[in-house]
């Protein structure tokens, strides 16, 4: 008997990780990606211990760590570079949580994930854009652009913040959801050669100004990823995109004047980055757990709980989702005693047996993190002298309580399983 086909929509972070897990459990995953050819993707990601543990299960953690340098320090300063606080807590992550935190280029992650699928003979179909879903009692058909369709046992929506899978699931529950919610903040980002002044330590650095925040972390031995966050209205949304080479000089000019008087290391990075990309930061209202799934479909990652990036947990939580969903699905080893029994679980009651407990486990945690990220963004980009003074003082105070800092990470990073 041929193994059940799993339709995985999206080859971002969650899609390929699930492709790996399902293949190894004896299923037949097919990963559909709307982009004609995967590769060049945005700026960077901070992979934390929780996400790296999952990437280690698919065999990629070591390769990604070798590309970059694990984080040793948190470092926060005022705009001019006057230190508000620093901590070497990240240098203990590997011992405490079995993996460090490490910044990586998104393109690197994207290429390695796709190659991993090809190496294990998983069917990856680029240039397939999901447009509709039809569910039956114990099967599901996905419809793609160009009049194509594929039927499988069940479907996992890993198609990100603008997920079509989510829109269809909600539509079938009688809910019409608008576009993602703009959080009022934009980021302008680049990757630059690491300035001399930042080379000493591999640190996640934050600089705080009035209405502006800058973050940076290394994504390789010689390169640093940086992003400038500002409060902006949506009026100029059409200008939020990767800039063409001929537009970069003007963007450098604008950023340099915005950041006049800031730490020279920042200006140096702005002045020398390979590319500059600008985007708005969006999230969505939370869904209830029962809105994460239908009879034959379940949402994972940003499709279920898109977040603004201020806690650096979007991709890491997507990977926790993958672990838990995969963990709750039965192994299908032909010839083994439980094969038939396990297949039964994929039958008519799949949503109650598997999807519902998955959603009930994951929704509360991700909901808190989405709200936390939004609050964190608002706090970081404080405006006005008094608000900025208060923020800077709060940050400095937080560093005086290492036990509280540690407790925060202790609630976040030991997941999704407590061993190596
Ligand atoms: C500026 C920024 C910085 C971030 N920094 C971090 C960070 O430091 N750490 C962190 O953990 N997270 C970070 N995140 C969040 C992280 O990028 C996301 O949470 C993560 O990528 C979610 O993974 P995913 O697989 O759910 O979705 P995605 O990675 O968005 O993948 C979705 C995929 O589905 C495809 N797709 C979409 N629609 C369709 C369709 N109809 N048919 C077929 N395919 C489709 C897309 O092309 C894409 O490849 C950041 C996000 C932003 C915006
Ligand atoms: C980083 O820079 C050093 C010194 O300039 C060089 O020897 C090394 O090859 C560089 N590494 C990478 C990955 O570019
Ligand atoms: C930015 O680059 C220009 C020329 O490339 C140089 O003249 C200027 O001093 C640089 N500014 C900073 C802050 O590095
Ligand atoms: C479906 O699964 C749920 C949860 O395991 C269980 O409570 C319920 O009785 C099952 N329904 C049927 C018809 O088997």
Automatic annotation (TrEMBL):
FAD-binding domain residues: 6-329
Membrane-crossing segments per the record: none
Gene3D superfamilies tied to this protein: FAD/NAD(P)-binding domain
InterPro entries referenced in this protein's UniProt entry, alphabetically: FAD-bd, FAD-dep_Monooxygenase_BioMet, FAD/NAD-bd_sf
UniProt-recorded Gene Ontology molecular function terms: FAD binding; monooxygenase activity
Keywords attached to this entry: FAD, Flavoprotein, Monooxygenase, Oxidoreductase
Top-rank taxon, per record: Eukaryota
Coiled coil: none
Sequence similarity: Belongs to the paxM FAD-dependent monooxygenase family.
Name this protein carries in UniProt: FAD-binding domain-containing protein
